[in-house]
């Protein structure tokens, strides 16, 4: 079992008053300085680290005494590494691009790190426990073979590349499957009971399952009865309880906040469907920032056995970088799910389809532009994280490095899962500009029980 350092104490953060001033990065000491008189003058700061050193710190994790357990493993080499000239000392190696997907040549190369690890035995251990839990809660009753085929255990193993303990991996796996079930049962799949006009009410109850509502004594038993009668609410409550074994109260509050934002995104998309409205691309991207992988990503530090203090997570620069990564990862989902959505009779929304309709271009060109947006966001996350890592605050460095590894695992899962790369599936033919077609951000949704779980707002 991997040993983890003690969680950082937000009440006693490190003294960062001696940090060098970085171009474009204000002094972070204001964020973490204790409420005491200012420290006496310090010697002149050392020179600003080079960009190469900052990127190396992001990719390699913190260094120095007592930080060995905070480092993540080196990335696994790509399947077929190309022969490249040896870099000069000043060169900064770019993360390896995984290349075209196996079985899905319609998706172009994306700028993203390779997966940090691939451990099938660990993935299977998580998968077995997850399926047993799903059966216990009652979600996807009679369809657990389809849930297993999604390989969510592998997804969690790939994205939480720093975690070796199956039970720690099981916590985010449970939370993720519960999120997908919420979207399916309440928003997408009418055969499973979804009622468009009751989506907001159902999602409010879902939030009460993870952030308990406190009713007067007369009504509390009725709420408890509802919580125990609905498999989705049972799963949401149970998964949050599992997460609480490893998360501090602050981390749980952060998770609940991001889940509330996710449910807001679900509601916005439901409004598009009910009204029959196709949103402009800018509006779609704004909603997609909420309806993204962010609730999964914020579990990185509790699963990893450390804590990114709330002052650091809430800093606009940190949050901005993380949200860019979340938006990039959900574009990956749009690119890999678009053909599956094209084959569905459901009203679907995804970025390539919306760009195609709004700009009057071909589907192939819309895919290329979507890939360019993904790469822009990943480059921005990389650059901003490198600057933030220069602060030398180990929990922040670890968290940003974990997000970087998460991006690589997310792409690898999309590249290899049978959901988007089934044997014999031929890519959909490129079409001309869409006239009057309505699409939707569904993370690969389809309707009807024969299609298996459709899991919209998070990885899919």
Give the mean pLDDT. 77
Instruction: Quickly count the helices.
Output: 18
Strand segment tally: 0
Class based on secondary structure composition and strand pairing: mainly alpha
Gap from first CA to last CA: 29 Å
Order of helices and strands, N to C?
A: HHHHHHHHHHHHHHHHHH
Q: Which band does the percent of strand residues land in?
A: under 5%
Low-confidence stretches: 1-8, 13-39, 45-49, 61-103, 424-452, 454-459
Tell me roughly what share of residues is in helical segments. 40-55%
- The outline comes out as globular
Biggest sheet character = none
Specify Rg, calculated over alpha carbons: 22 Å
Descriptive notes:
This protein is an all-alpha fold. The protein is built from 18 helices and no strands. Helix 6 runs antiparallel to helix 9. The two termini are 29 Å apart. The N terminus and C terminus are likely disordered.
Quick gist of this model?
By secondary structure, the protein is an all-alpha fold. It contains 18 helices and no strands.
Keyphrases for this structure?
globular; 0% strand; disordered N terminus; 18 helices; disordered C terminus; 52% helix; 460 residues; mainly alpha
Please render the helix and strand layout as text.
Elements lengths: L28 H4 L18 H10 L59 H18 L6 H6 L2 H8 L6 H23 L10 H12 L9 H10 L1 H13 L5 H27 L5 H10 L3 H4 L2 H5 L5 H4 L2 H27 L8 H9 L3 H27 L4 H23 L44
Helix pairs in contact: 2-17, 2-18, 3-5, 3-6, 5-6, 5-18, 6-9, 7-9, 7-10, 8-9, 10-11, 15-17, 15-18, 16-17, 17-18
